[in-house]
Amino acid sequence: MSDHKFSAIFILLLCSSTYLAATRRRLNDAHLHNTWILAPAGSFLVTGFFIVFTGYNSSYWLLLIPLLMMVVLLTYPSKSQKRYILGYNGPVNLSDFQQLKKTNSRNSQRIEPTMNSVNISQSSINKNDYSPLADNNQNTSSTTHANHFSDSSQDKVELAESIRLALFSKKNSQLTIALISFLLVIAFIISMLFAKPTPADNPVEHTSEIQKTAKEFQHQITLPDNFSIMIAADNAIVIQWQASVKDNLNVWSLGTAAGDKSCKSIEFTKEEVIRTYSVSTIDNKYYAYFSPLDTKALIKNIAFKNKFLLCGYSFSLKGSQARLGKSPFYANLIEY
């Protein structure tokens, strides 16, 4: 499993835990049964794993399923008497974040600059005057505003609940579920039809279908340690060997740097390393493709080095020079 998938799974589990906690709080507020708790978080987790392991970009439409489940939960009114501040209810006091700025009538008095003592004393009198009526009016205004906000919130909750009851009543529930499922399937099919293949799906042209391109291999020769070299249609070296592996067209790709990193290069010595262009497996055989620019360097190293490492396999090159020298094609590529 690649590092990218490990990171994706870690983020998925973290988001699923947050999703589960949010669902639990919503159920507690609405006094709903706990059988709901795994529906949104569970569907999100399953959908996430499907996206990570399949790699289909069109699969992101499936995230609408847990999203719709959470939207349905949000339509249930809160029956809890707990007061939340910034979405929090607990031992930490966050009331400072909710305090309304009350303007004292005495501080709101404006003192005009004066040039004589009469105005100063008059201002002092005005400053020391205190009107309980002003405070009462201000408190009444704040209370009215709070009540108006509460009524507005209640209206929104009642509207959402009315929509939920209308859509998921005994009469309309089956029709609503069928319509949502139909729309999701249509969206998934359309995205599959118009999805462009990513580089990971088709890393190079000659590895998309090994069975077709195998017919185009030329000058195949088997060397003493049971591996073969051949020339592809683009005059690039291909190294093939037998192994008990599952078919996989995307073992490694230089274009995406995705896959088994042990296949990213062929190593003759620590200093002599040549990158592979792509590596694929089919019919229990590895196919390692190299750039045409490295053809002569590869043949020279195979002829004169002692061994090489590729995809975790070690191959001996003993007797390779003699075997290559018997081939008119490869003998011309060896640089002495």
Which helices and strands occur, and which strands form pairs?
Layout: H1 3-30, H2 38-54, H3 64-74, H4 105-108, H5 117-128, H6 132-167, H7 173-194, H8 210-213, E1 218-223, E2 227-231, E3 237-242, E4 248-253, E5 258-259, E6 265-267, E7 273-275, E8 278-282, E9 285-289, H9 295-304, E10 307-310, E11 313-316, H10 320-325, H11 328-333
Walk me through this protein's architecture.
The protein contains eleven helices and eleven strands. It has 336 residues and is of the alpha+beta class. The two termini are 42 Å apart. It folds into two domains: 3-80 and 166-194, no CATH class; 205-333, no CATH class. Helix 1 (3-30) runs antiparallel to helix 2 (38-54) and helix 2 packs antiparallel against helix 3.
Supply database-style keywords.
2 domains, 336 residues, elongated, alpha+beta
Concise synopsis of the structure shown:
The chain is an alpha+beta fold. The chain is built from 11 helices and 11 strands.
